[in-house]
Write a structure and sequence with these properties.
Layout lengths: L12 H47 L3 H10 L11 H28 L5 H10 L3
Length: 129
């Protein structure tokens, strides 16, 4: 049985389940955040690779094609007025930060801040002889 650390009072099954689902949702958001960082880094890397493509097009005798890449792709915004770092910052400040804060506040209120109660309960059940 899982107990609130501060009061020693047992935390009911429904609360543990609800906190587990909230934690799972935060973990999914963490994964999405990682993919967003991958998007940011991969897009930036591709933009830098365009410099080489431009050089190679010019060296191969295609300056007009190099100019198209330079004028239409290099440094281009991925969204209106935004580079990927700005998308990441807006996600961090406008969604992820709020999500993590809400999860933490609810966990503090209902479980004394303890994390992974659902998993702790599962460990206890699975390790019983």
């Amino acid at each position: 049985m899982i107990h609130d650390v501060r009061s020693g009072v047992p935390i009911d099954e429904a609360t543990v389940e609800a906190l587990g689902k909230l934690s799972e949702a935060l973990e999914t958001t963490e994964r999405a955040r990682g993919h967003l960082y991958s998007f940011h880094q991969l897009t930036g890397h591709a933009d830098l690779q365009l410099d080489e493509a431009v050089e190679m097009l010019r060296a191969a005798g295609h300056p007009e094609m190099a100019d198209i890449v330079t004028s239409e792709l290099i440094g281009r915004n991925v969204l209106p007025d935004r580079w990927t770092y700005q998308v990441v910052e807006e996600y961090e400040d406008g969604y992820y930060g709020v999500f993590a804060d809400v999860e933490r506040r609810i966990r503090e209120r209902l479980a004394g801040g303890r994390r992974h109660l659902h998993e702790a309960r599962m460990k206890e059940r699975r390790q019983k002889p």
